[in-house]
């Protein structure tokens, strides 16, 4: 889409003006490929609904041909999610891929097939082992097949940023002639600079016949920390769709972060006079939801959604903010979903106050069962702590909000004497049936993990064990992270509790449940785009 066009008609979005940026979210596809990340069907449906509510234009739901689980996820998201275009990934050279994508997307209100193939000399020689002319033939075949199933077709040049310009132009021209309506040029390995990306899009728009009839898209990885910068530069070059993920998750160092792109466009409208359909007040809520589901906390200093993003400790900064927030805040916390509420919760707080606090923290959609469970744990925590902080509530609610329920922690008792082995008696619920185990170990955590292996037999190895305090003080909740490894698959689980050993067990159980989800999945070839 040319920057000087007055409008453009898109099969899914109708008339598009040059200042409108399409937000394409690939959290459920590229994001979930990250080592240690996995989501079950219920969690993917929750995320898809949250993304649609946030205002995401296109949700890339998965790669249907990869496995039965991926097919089912895309199909159910297509069936249940409204308000966004639902997209499925396929390889340009795979007839089965494109057929599976079309079948999975059949129930969608609006649908897109996204096909891709590598175009760089390095990928064609070593990954595809194909000649350039063969790649061109597959681009034509793939986009033709996809266009027979839907009017909304996207084509991606994998490793496009390292593709020779002349050949890239030929590939893009072939895709347009075959029916692609969106052309995506990914910086697949995060190698490009902002200058590179702006030049690529400017070049394609100037040289490729039919470039004024398609929307150009940018998909930038963050290996050099340039994902967002490269995306903004791509927009300057003429891209009008950006591909991104919540919290910037994704392969290796991740993708360009949706929340950072959107707020950069909004905050620096003087430099980027573009608009999106994102309801920015929901950014924090969706970020926290994803962190809960994947068990990967957002780093404290993460832009926009990190807990320190609007925190001021320096006396000079605090003085300035108190006089005028604009002295050190370039956007308001409320604009992305943060609340300045300082309501203190304690053992005398009732259910209504607890529900109001949850709404303020972005958990207004919890069902009654989870609310009751979370409130019970809150009261138990409040009996043990003088003050329950917001972070305490987030930690315990996140434990209750998970959909992994094959295995559940019930209770345990610990016997520990200095200088002697500790003993743990543990009860788990496995598919609704209680199972008991007793084990000893070198300390209570080791004993608890040994009991877990007896209660639910498995061969996974403990790859990481980390404990941190949620808040300050000796009565603080412990947040524990456990990483398990099995047959090359990595999963992370998290748990929180005022009792460190219980926190560790909750984290281990969470990781086990995620591992069971991971076992059901297969790793498809050539997923990167």
From TrEMBL:
Cellular component GO terms held in the UniProt record: cytoplasm
Function noted in UniProt: Catalyzes the condensation of the acetyl group of acetyl-CoA with 3-methyl-2-oxobutanoate (2-ketoisovalerate) to form 3-carboxy-3-hydroxy-4-methylpentanoate (2-isopropylmalate).
Name by which UniProt lists this protein: 2-isopropylmalate synthase
Gene3D superfamilies attached to this UniProt entry: 1.10.238.260, 3.30.160.270, Aldolase class I
Family as reported in the entry's similarity comment: Belongs to the alpha-IPM synthase/homocitrate synthase family. LeuA type 1 subfamily.
Record-level GO BP terms: L-leucine biosynthetic process
Transmembrane segments: none
Domain Pyruvate carboxyltransferase: 21-284
Pathway involvement of the protein, from the record: Amino-acid biosynthesis; L-leucine biosynthesis; L-leucine from 3-methyl-2-oxobutanoate: step 1/4
Residues involved in Mn(2+) binding: 30, 219, 221, 255
Catalytic activity, as annotated: 3-methyl-2-oxobutanoate + acetyl-CoA + H2O = (2S)-2-isopropylmalate + CoA + H(+)
EC number(s) from the headed UniProt entry: 2.3.3.13
Pfam families xrefs: HCS_D2, HMGL-like, LeuA_dimer
Keywords from the named record: Acyltransferase, Amino-acid biosynthesis, Branched-chain amino acid biosynthesis, Cytoplasm, Leucine biosynthesis, Manganese, Metal-binding, Transferase
Region of interest (Regulatory domain), residue spans: 408-529
Entry-linked CDD domains: DRE_TIM_IPMS
Any one GO molecular function term: manganese ion binding
Cofactor: Mn(2+)
Assembly and interaction partners: Homodimer.
SMART domains per UniProt: LeuA_dimer
Species of the source: Acetobacter vaccinii
InterPro entries: 2-IPM_HCS-like (IPR050073), 2-isopropylmalate_synth_dimer (IPR013709), AIPM/Hcit_synth_CS (IPR002034), Aldolase_TIM (IPR013785), LeuA/HCS_post-cat (IPR054691), LeuA_allosteric_dom_sf (IPR036230), LeuA_bact_synth (IPR005671), PYR_CT (IPR000891)
